[in-house]
């Protein structure tokens, strides 16, 4: 069967389509890019697509991130690894009882202008189809969450994003501005599964005893990262220097209707909307969160 060639949406102009031909599903180049991403995900629990955004567009990415960064909700909070409310009935050794200081900030989707590169790219079907093939699922859906589906993560000097799990199974992120120092992505691939929390292993990582389970990754601007954030514990280490770390986060799910909980949404964005909480929240598993 001949590969299909789709009309190239303007939203894909920033992408290096020679290296990542999103508009040519089934082509040799498309298959090669997908195969490489799948191999890295299988081996490392994470795939990085270097040079995903063409060099000529990276300054615009950086400027747009700097433009909206002041709209981020900043709030230092003591949280736990699951971002759930404290539960004194849990055993003292449970990782949910370990306090963590969260000092990063998020710009919600409804505060990112529609004409920005990241907002134009997020809903493009060819982008989602390529990502779905990379992670090995039939289809990826935009989150039904009007705040968390797309956001800009801002980690300033002296701040970090502590150990946590994501609400959605697959995290897709694009570094738009690298810090001067620090801000290293650390993760423990598949430390839990949809049927097991594996709290002993999680507690060991929080205690600094993760050993070889903890992997480190220093990303560069314009690199796209694919990551199983629902099941892999991860964090961003403290940023040093005067340049904040900016990351666009594209959140998708293998099933439609996923919405963040009211508690977590308020932690990240300082507010909630009618869509949050209640029966409209959908999860793919019974994990703590």
Q: Can you offer a commentary on this structure?
A:
With 289 residues, this protein is of the alpha+beta class. The chain has one domain (11-272): Jelly Rolls (Sandwich). Helices cover 22% and strands 22% of the residues. The chain has six helices and 16 strands. The chain has helices at residues 28-44, 55-68, 117-121, 125-135, 199-206, 262-269; strands at residues 46-49, 73-74, 77-79, 100-102, 105-107, 141-142, 150-155, 161-164, 170-177, 181-182, 185-188, 215-217, 224-227, 233-236, 239-240, 245-253. Strands 1, 2, 5, 6, 7, 9, 13 and 16 form an eight-stranded antiparallel beta sheet that branches. The protein has a four-stranded antiparallel beta sheet with strand order 8-14-11-12, with no helix packed on it. A two-stranded antiparallel sheet has the order 3-4. Helix 1 (28-44) packs across helix 4 (125-135). The protein is globular and about 55 Å long. The N and C termini lie far apart (42 Å). The mean pLDDT is 91.
List keywords for this structure.
289 residues, alpha+beta, Jelly Rolls, eight-stranded antiparallel sheet, four-stranded antiparallel sheet, globular
Task: Write a brief structural summary.
The protein is built from 6 helices and 16 strands. It is an alpha+beta fold.
Note the topology.
Layout: H1 28-44, E1 46-49, H2 55-68, E2 73-74, E3 77-79, E4 100-102, E5 105-107, H3 117-121, H4 125-135, E6 141-142, E7 150-155, E8 161-164, E9 170-177, E10 181-182, E11 185-188, H5 199-206, E12 215-217, E13 224-227, E14 233-236, E15 239-240, E16 245-253, H6 262-269
Antiparallel strand pairs: 1-13, 2-5, 3-4, 5-7, 6-16, 7-16, 8-14, 9-13, 9-16, 10-15, 11-12, 11-14
